[in-house]
Write a structure and sequence with these properties.
This protein has 224 residues and is mostly helical. It has one domain. It has 12 helices and no strands. Helix 2 packs antiparallel against helix 4, helix 4 crosses helix 8 and helix 8 crosses helix 9. The two termini are 20 Å apart.
Length: 224
Amino acid sequence: MKTSFEYRALARESLLGRWNGLALLMFAYALVAAVAGYSSVVGSRMGIGWLTGFGGGVNMCLTILLVLPLGYAFNNICLLFVRSEAADDGLFGQLFGEMRANWRTLVCVGVLEMIILSLVGVLTLGIGLVILDLAYALVPFVVHDNPDIDCREALRRSRIMMRGHKMDLFLLYLTFIPWILLIFITFGIAAFWVAPYVSMSLAHFYEDVKREYDTLNAGEYTPA
C-alpha cells in the first residue's frame, strides 16, 4: 500500500485538466440533494405540519432513489478516470449512465447500509459508525466491478477487502483536514473541488486494495 500523500499525489495527477469539470458535476449533485429536502424545509419554516411531513417523506424517497445512487456513481466516475476509461466530455451523461447501469443494486446497497449504520450507531452510541463507515468505503467500486453482485454481498465484499486497511484509509482521510477547513473558510464553495479530490484518492486506494484482494484469493476470508 502507498502512503496517504502518494495517493493524494496520484489523485492530483488524475485531476489535471478535470478539476473544474468534476467540480461542476459535484455542484449539480449538490443541487439535486438540496432540491430533495426543499419541501420539508419550506414546511418547517412556514409552520405547515403536513407539508413538513410530506416533504420529509419526499426527501427520504428522493435520497434513497436518486441522491445515494448518484453519490455512488460519482465515485465510480472517478474510478473510470483512474483507469483511463472515462471521457473528459459528457460528464453528466456518464454520471447518469453509471447510475442507471447499477441503479437497483445501488439503491438496495444504500438502504441496507443506512439501516446497518443506524442500528450500529444506536447500539454503540455512535462509536462503531466510524469503523463501519470505513469498512463500507469501497462499496460503490465493488458494485461497479461486479454489476451482478447482490447488495448484501457487495457490503460483505467491501468489509473483507478493508480488513487490515481501515487505519490506512482513516489516515488518508485525516490528511484532508486542511482542505475541510478550507471548505468552512469559503462557506462551502471549496467543497465542489475537495469532494472530487477525496473521491479520486479513494479510487486510487481501491485499486491497490483490489489488487491485493485478487492476489490473496479473498474467498478464503470471512467478514470482519
